[in-house]
Write a structure and sequence with these properties.
The protein contains twelve helices and 15 strands. The chain has 389 residues and is of the alpha/beta class. It is globular, with a radius of gyration of 22 Å.
Length: 389
């Protein structure tokens, strides 16, 4: 632990600008992805002081809420950052991810006989992920209370961030806050979103409205690693004809990338779309009953017959993360553990890349520095955490 704590953070020298402006801001990106590592650092090292930018102070840390969710609020003199925790190893956290049937993007959720009106979009057919929407609704009163607390300190510039599940919650929270009834929050508030490795959170109509309002105006970003599977979840498939003259021409002449894996996936989902839709709705009805045991009776709006999710946020792509070559002595590895090793052409044995290595938040942090802040990256003494290997 002592070694880790002595090597880690150069973004203490980074300053986020005093006013939130449209456009991708390297300082905002490095600060937010650093904060996305906060919860993991606390869990592993007992402190996050070596990963949180020094020019930000903790304003608020929530209790464990909803489905094992938690958020932090950091601030300096002019800007606040709301940071959502990603999925944990608790079953209820993964129930939230799997609760992937869609509900209308505007409606009412009744929890233990109390009505909660919500709006994530105004488009008639817009729909959102039930699990993430339920969490945002459950957390909304506390989020709004914290924003009012920031406003009382004359802080109106608010960035919302998160990694993985936390990224999806960040995007949906942005949509929720931008659609609250007039008068509920100050008109001076300005929001910006940086979501890392986020799974998708709504259908085509929701994504189109979100992206028109925020992504195209460059106030919402989705930063992904193309080799990370999570940003392509739950389902996304081509709704138009899978093969057309235009597509074939593009593939042949190099104007459009030919992705056989994606084409096969789209064909599979299209073939079994009705059955998959029925399965998702049925399994999520059961999840709803299970959640009722925790929160009291939950009455969700009727599930929408749509399982096709679309990405939100102006996309920024990172190159695949490099897995370090860690040589091992094969004689010291038990037979049943050798499946995790691979041999090179020289006969040496190395660890295989660990599952979800391409999704880990610290690897996103390192990759963001490497791509957009090379000076800070060059001063890093450790470019991966042993726990991620």
């Amino acid at each position: 632990m002592r070694v880790v704590l002595t090597i880690l953070f150069l973004s203490i020298f980074l300053q986020v600008s005093a006013q939130l402006k449209p456009g991708f801001n390297v300082n905002e990106a490095t600060s937010t992805i650093a904060m996305c590592n906060s919860f993991n650092f606390i869990k592993q090292f007992g402190t996050n002081k070596n990963i949180i930018p020094a020019h930000f102070n903790l304003h608020y840390s929530s209790d464990i809420l909803s489905m094992d969710n938690k958020f932090e609020v950091y601030k300096n003199d002019t800007i606040a950052i709301i940071n959502y925790r990603g999925s944990t190893d608790k079953m209820i956290s993964w129930v939230e991810n799997c609760y992937s049937a869609m509900i209308p993007a505007k409606g009412t959720i009744v929890i233990d006989k109390k009505e909660h009106d919500y709006a994530f979009a105004s488009a008639e057919n817009a729909a959102v992920h039930a699990g993430y929407a339920l969490t945002v609704v459950l957390l909304s009163e506390e989020i709004i209370a914290q924003i009012k607390s920031l406003n009382a300190k004359e802080i109106y510039n608010i960035i919302i961030t998160g990694h993985s599940q936390g990224g999806a919650l960040a995007s949906l929270t942005r949509a929720y806050l931008e659609n609250v009834p007039k008068g509920k929050l100050s008109k001076q508030n300005r929001y910006k979103t940086y979501a890392y490795a986020q799974p998708m959170s709504g259908n085509k109509e929701f994504a189109e409205e979100y992206n028109t309002r925020f992504s195209e105006l460059e106030t919402s970003y989705s930063i992904i690693n193309k080799e990370d599977p999570v940003p392509y979840m739950p389902f996304n498939y081509e709704e138009d004809k899978l093969i057309t003259k235009q597509k074939i021409s593009g593939w042949l002449f190099g104007n459009k990338a030919f992705e056989p894996k994606k084409l096969g996936q789209d064909a599979f989902i299209r073939l079994f779309e009705r059955g998959l839709t029925s399965y998702v709705k049925g399994s999520n009805t059961l999840i709803n009953k299970i959640l009722g045991l925790k929160f009291g009776k939950i009455e969700m709006p009727a599930f929408v017959a749509d399982i096709n999710y679309y990405p939100t946020g102006k996309r920024k792509e990172l190159p695949a993360f490099t897995y370090p070559k860690i040589e091992v002595n094969i004689a010291e590895v038990a037979e049943n553990e050798r499946q995790h090793l691979e041999q090179d052409s020289n006969g040496k044995w190395y660890k295989k890349e660990a599952k979800f290595f391409q999704h880990k938040p610290y690897n996103y942090y390192v990759a963001v520095l490497k791509k957009w802040n090379t000076t800070a990256y060059n001063h890093l003494e450790i470019t991966y955490l042993l726990s991620d290997l």
